[in-house]
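Running co-folding for zinc ion.
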Amino acid sequence: MADCLFCKIAQRELEADVVYETGAVLAFRDIAPVAPTHVLLIPKEHLASVADVTTAHGDVLVEMLAAMSSLAESENLTGGYRIVTNVGSDAGQSVNHLHWHLIGGRKMEWPPG
Ligand code: 5GP
Ligand code: ZN
């Protein structure tokens, strides 16, 4: 999608510290990490958020969930980790291309702010 930051990263028009890639998904380090590990995982296909997900996206979603558990392993997040996706302004979504935050490497609190 034109003018979408994460589409541009997916198409390698913008630089990112990529840690994982397949034909359908890309993972890269967040530019403003909130924990020792903070990776963003996106589908290469533009979807604005999980609110746009349908059953037709089942394969890519399963791929993303599996990718996050392998990333957690390769990032050595043995103490646990959090996966988060923000939807809409109340949740603080700032980039309107579906992304999962994989956050770990420190103790976290609940509920989030
Ligand atoms: P959201 O606020 O939509 O849940 O998450 C967007 C995330 O994208 C934020 O954590 C922010 O730091 C990250 N981000 C914004 N712009 C860039 C960028 O150009 N490169 C990278 N790697 N991360 C970005
Ligand atoms: Zn996009």
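Result summary
Residues 5, 16, 28, 30-32, 40, 86, 92-95 surround guanosine-5'-monophosphate (ligand 1) (CB under 6 Å).
The CA atoms of residues 20 and 71 lie 8 Å apart.
Job closed.
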